[in-house]
Write a structure and sequence with these properties.
The complex is a heterodimer of chains A (350) and B (484). Chain A is α/β, with parallel strands linked by helices and 350 residues long. In chain A, 51% of the residues lie in helices and 7% in strands. Chain B is an all-alpha fold and 484 residues long. Helix content of chain B is 67%, strand content 0%. Chain B is built from 18 helices and no strands. Classes of the chains: A alpha/beta (350), B mainly alpha (484).
């Protein structure tokens, strides 16, 4: 009798668990995959890059490049190019761009032309969060998967995620309100980035520049604290350029325009100023043989910007075709490219 | 001293937590060996396992555990033959060694800091050195446990053991070593001295059930709301009142789920090894007054404080005011036991005040096990819970000023966004905890669900398993009581 009752209890349990799994399988395709990279941006881009395969043009950089450059407009302007991807990652430091390029951009996208798009915001050697951002990226499960460095626990988790939808969506189930909002079509920024298919972040499109002393104070005390243009960032850029050139691909640097006069006030307590940045970027171009494209005529026109350096849609629509035209003139022929070697363990997303 | 200099919480981020794979492996190995070994072999194996378990936290502090064990074994063994004067000396030796270790490792920096602050407040420019000492995990638990052995022998309430091995296992038994229950030698020691009955299917079943429920309480109820608590308490000066309020409810749930979950896993682990550990929690949030709360919350500590502090101080045998004084001293020291910080002392003070006030209004002591509150008791349960929750603000805050800012935020109805995500997460988990407590109280047993009809039992198991599937695999939150 007791054994029979136990069987009934186990049977009920199985029915409930199977029911939950069926429900989870119904929801799974509608929810973002479990996050294994350090940010939803990197996660979405890693998935998309693996889906895309070879492209002609890749853009790398931080949020400045990500928000401001429509790579489709660039490829339209270049005769030999018909595809591109904006592979820049918001919140990333220059040293992270180097790792990201080696991990996915160069081996997976195998671009013929790489556009490094940057501004003074990216080049502060005293940036307090650089180290943390880099190590968060390097330690992310997605990156470790590429190199076969998952822990046993992560491998077990990954196995169960593939077998059971309930495990695959459990991260999302822990935030029920966000899940319902997401299923209703709302944007949940901590789950999924608002990106176009070619990788551009749309979050700044509707913005418009206004003076904001509190924002400027936060920048002065945060990312741009003790502004210094020194070897840390620029040496990393040289390494990145060398890696790209080793594949045979073209490289170009775009010195992004910005609300320069206002930014100059923000960095005025540092050991460097924006003129030092200008000199350093020109010197980088000279030393590496890479053309530096500058659009200083767009500086200080508030209509183009969402804040001090991220472009709103009018700025993006203005600068992207201009970059395309300049690159078309600089690089009239398709180069011979040999794709970089893929990390040894292949996909980071499954 | 450099090698001991680190954050006081550092050791608790490593070690072998009950919700880790390492612990599951250790328990499985010990369980299998325990079934095949004779009693002495079982004790040797349990001692090795316990020392390995402790060394996984920090092997350097194993020496303290061994010193405490040897001192109390020798002191206890020498007492029966000693004269009355020497018995006192022996007891003093035990107290000095145990409280000396505890005092040095747990309280030195606190008193040095407080002394320096006092001198500075008085206008002296004082700088008192602190040692930034790491707190050995579980030290407050095992020193109290060994002290109770010596005190009981001194009071002639038990005979000393002649078996060092059994005594060493009693002090270090791994399921309850780092966070209790603080066992009494009279209850636990004989279980290691005598042959244990063979562990049957029923003990294994109920032991595994206790482990499962403990994991549910820890992983689902406590860890899931940990970010809600962190968000509220780290923004006590700026968060809106709704967020702060949710933060208190979440912390009330977190500390209960965390600690009672730990105790449940400890009892379940011990049970499958044939050892009975005392009940440490008895649905405390269903209490209809504060006295009942302390009869059902951290029972092993509250009864320890009652037997070895409150009653020796005079208990309720003297005048009314003496009783209040004794209650207050007991609760202040109980607060200080939790941690070397003024927030814990104030938490103890508040509970001393509550208990005294309750005694003022109702002098008749309650007897017997608490029963399920009736409908008319609900307002009393709600008020008692909120008094306890109010005191938790001090317990969880990092400083008195942070706690006062927290209270100010709530009572001034500080504006702020409504954290719907936190509410949607916390409220159902509070409800789940309440339902589990009601089921246990109604069934007068922690294993009440085991006796439910098959279908209801199946549904209950499914909810527990689904909760564990969804909420396991998150970043590990250390058991809160490991730091005490």
């Amino acid at each position: 009798m007791r054994t029979n009752r136990s069987f009934v209890a186990v049977g009920v349990m199985l029915v409930v668990l199977v029911g939950a799994e069926v429900g989870a399988r119904f929801l799974e395709p509608k929810l973002p995959a479990p996050q294994v990279w350090d940010t939803p941006f990197v996660q979405d881009k890693a998935i998309r890059i693996e889906e895309l395969g070879d492209v002609d043009i890749a853009v790398i950089g931080s949020s400045i490049a990500n928000a401001s450059i429509d790579v489709t407009m660039i490829s339209e302007a270049i005769d030999w190019a018909d595809s591109g991807y904006n592979a820049s990652n918001p919140g990333s430091a220059i040293r992270e761009w180097g790792a990201w390029d080696e991990d996915l951009v160069l081996p997976e996208l195998c671009p013929d032309l790489v556009v490094i798009s940057m501004g003074p915001r990216d080049t502060n050697d005293n940036e307090p969060t650089d180290e943390r951002e880099l190590s968060t990226y390097l330690d992310s499960e997605g990156r470790r998967r590429l190199y076969g460095e998952e822990t046993i626990g992560e491998s077990i988790e990954s196995f169960f995620q593939q077998q059971f939808a309930l495990v695959a969506i459990r991260e999302r189930l822990r935030e029920p309100r966000n899940m319902f909002r997401f299923l209703n079509g709302e944007s949940i920024s901590s789950w999924k980035a608002r990106l176009t298919p070619d990788g551009r972040f749309q979050g700044f499109d509707g913005g418009h520049y206004v003076d904001d002393l509190e924002r400027d104070r936060r920048l002065r005390e945060g990312e741009l604290r003790d502004y210094q243009v020194g070897p840390v960032q620029f040496d990393s850029l040289k390494d990145i350029i060398a890696d790209i050139q080793a594949t045979g691909a073209y490289v170009a640097i775009v010195d992004m325009p910005l609300m320069r006069d206002q930014l100059a006030k923000v960095v005025d307590d540092g050991t460097s100023d924006l003129d030092d940045y200008d000199r350093a970027i020109r010197q980088l171009g000279t030393e590496t043989g890479v053309p530096v494209l500058s659009y200083s005529d767009m500086n200080n026109h508030g209509v183009f910007y969402a804040d001090l350096y991220h472009m709103a849609l009018p700025g993006t629509l203005e600068i992207s075709p201009r970059i395309g035209q300049d690159l078309a003139e600089l690089f009239p022929e398709r180069p011979q490219v040999e794709c970089a070697i893929r990390p040894p363990y292949g996909s980071a997303n499954s | 001293m450099d090698s001991l200099s680190a954050s006081p919480l550092l050791p608790f981020h490593s070690g072998m937590a009950f919700n880790s794979i390492q612990y599951a492996v250790l328990l499985a190995v010990v369980f299998v060996l325990n079934r095949f070994l004779p009693r002495r072999g079982q004790n040797v194996m349990l001692l090795i396992a316990s020392y390995l378990f402790y060394a996984a936290w920090d092997w350097r502090f194993l020496s303290l555990l061994i010193v405490s064990t040897l001192v109390d074994f020798l002191v206890g063994g020498a007492m029966p033959a000693a004269s009355e004067k020497n018995r006192k000396r022996l007891l003093t030796t035990s107290m000095v060694v145990n409280l000396g270790i505890l005092g040095f490792f747990k309280y030195f920096d606190f008193f040095a800091d407080s002394f320096a602050n006092l001198l500075n407040d008085l206008g002296f420019n004082a700088s008192v050195p602190t040692l930034k000492i790491i707190l050995p995990v579980g030290i407050s638990f095992y020193t109290f446990q060994t002290m109770s052995y010596t005190i009981d022998i001194y009071r002639r309430q038990m005979e000393p053991t002649r078996d060092l091995l059994s005594f060493a296992v009693f002090v270090s038994f791994f399921p309850q070593l780092v966070a209790g229950p603080i066992e009494r030698a009279r209850h636990l020691l004989p279980q290691f001295e005598q042959d244990r009955p063979k562990v049957g299917r029923s003990e294994i079943g109920s032991g595994l059930y206790l482990i499962l429920i403990g994991l549910f309480k820890k992983v689902v109820l406590a860890d899931a709301v940990a970010p809600v608590v962190e968000e509220a308490f780290s923004n006590s000066g700026t968060a809106g009142w709704v967020q702060l309020l949710i933060g208190i409810y979440a912390f009330s749930l977190q500390i209960y789920g965390d600690f009672s979950g730990y105790s449940s896993i400890a009892r379940g682990s011990a049970r499958i090894l044939g050892i009975d550990l005392m009940v440490n929690f008895n649905q405390p949030y269903l209490s209809k007054n504060i006295t009942q709360f302390w009869r059902t919350w951290h029972i092993s500590l509250s009864t320890w404080l009652r037997d070895y502090l409150y009653i020796p101080l005079g208990g309720n045998r003297g005048s009314q005011w003496m009783t209040y004084r004794n209650l207050m001293i007991t609760m202040l020291l109980g607060g200080l036991w939790h941690g070397a910080a003024w927030v814990f002392v104030f938490w103890g003070f508040l509970h001393g005040l509550y208990l005294s006030a309750h005694r003022w209004f109702r002098r008749d002591a309650e007897k017997g096990d608490p029963v399920l509150p009736g409908w008319r008791d609900i307002p009393l349960v709600v008020v008692t819970f909120h008094l306890v929750a109010l005191a938790w603000i001090f317990f969880r805050s990092t400083s008195m000023s942070a706690a006062l800012a927290y209270l100010d935020g709530i009572f001034s109805l500080r504006e702020g966004s409504i954290p719907w995500d936190d509410i949607v997460l916390t409220v159902p988990l509070l409800a789940a905890s309440l339902i589990l407590d009601i089921a246990q109280r109604a069934g007068r047993s922690h294993e009440a669900i085991l006796h439910w009809p098959a279908v209801a039992r199946g549904v209950a198991y499914s909810i527990v398993l689904l909760g564990l599937i969804i909420f396991s695999g998150q970043p590990t939150v250390p058991f809160l009581y490991f730091q005490f």
